[in-house]
Amino acid sequence: MIIVHHLENSRSQRVLWLLEELEMPYDIRRYERDRKTMLAPTELKRVHPLGKAPVIEDDGRVLAETGAIVEYLVEKAGGKLGPPPNREAVLRYRHFLHYAEGSMMPPLFGLLIINRLGLLGKPAKATVQAMLDTHLDWLESELAARAWFAGDEFTAADIMMSFPLEASRARGGLGPSRPHLMDWLERIHARPAYGAALGKGGPYAYA
């Protein structure tokens, strides 16, 4: 049985959602953030030295990093929700699988820190917001061309993109001015597996 070490309001919500989409059985070990620092509890370091979530345990393996976990689970499921059978779609799938964390999350994390700094962070806010807006404008144009990030079918790339776009709506200025992204968020939130993952994972601030 796969064990998911799940931290509230974190990237690990995507792993629960993917497992529901893949119809794979799993158990959850749920952790709450420190109410003062909002960091993960030290207990997670007993699972993996980095003390981050998500982490999964399966067949004696301990795996960290969302993208690596997603690739592992898609492979374990025989390729379900993996890259479509089209070279261009494969390249888009691979791109967005890595883009979600490598390109989207740095400016979002920057905004999170800036907002916590209050007046001290104000000088940097416009610059970092402009960086994020460039990403959001490009993503809006991508979804104007097709229904899902890799192509015409829902894939694990969409699951990977969920957290940065949910976070963008919560604190990055994503709203009605980018209707294709907002429609995409509505469609992923309407998926039964997404709802099932919320039911099992507990409260999630970005849904």
What is this structure, in a nutshell?
This protein has 207 residues and is of the alpha+beta class. It is 55% helix and 10% strand. It has 7 helices and 4 strands; from the N terminus they run E-H-E-E-E-H-H-H-H-H-H.
Structure description:
The chain has seven helices and four strands, in the order E-H-E-E-E-H-H-H-H-H-H. It is α+β, with helices and mostly antiparallel strands. It folds into two domains: 89 residues, Glutaredoxin, CATH 3.40.30; 105 residues, Glutathione S-transferase Yfyf (Class Pi), Chain A, domain 2 (Up-down Bundle). The chain has a four-stranded mixed sheet with strand order 2-1-3-4, covered by helices on one side. The model has no long low-confidence stretch (mean pLDDT 95). GO terms for molecular function: glutathione transferase activity; peroxidase activity. Keywords: Transferase. One of its GO terms (cellular component) is cytoplasm. Its EC number is 2.5.1.18. This is glutathione transferase.
Top keywords for this entry?
alpha+beta; Glutathione_S-Trfase_N; four-stranded mixed β-sheet; Thioredoxin-like_sf; glutathione transferase; glutathione transferase activity; Glutaredoxin; transferase
Which helices and strands occur, and which strands form pairs?
Layout: E1 2-7, H1 12-22, E2 26-31, E3 55-58, E4 61-64, H2 66-76, H3 87-117, H4 122-145, H5 156-171, H6 179-189, H7 192-201
Parallel strand pairs: 1-2
Antiparallel strand pairs: 1-3, 3-4
Helix pairs in contact: 1-2, 1-5, 1-7, 3-4, 3-5, 4-6
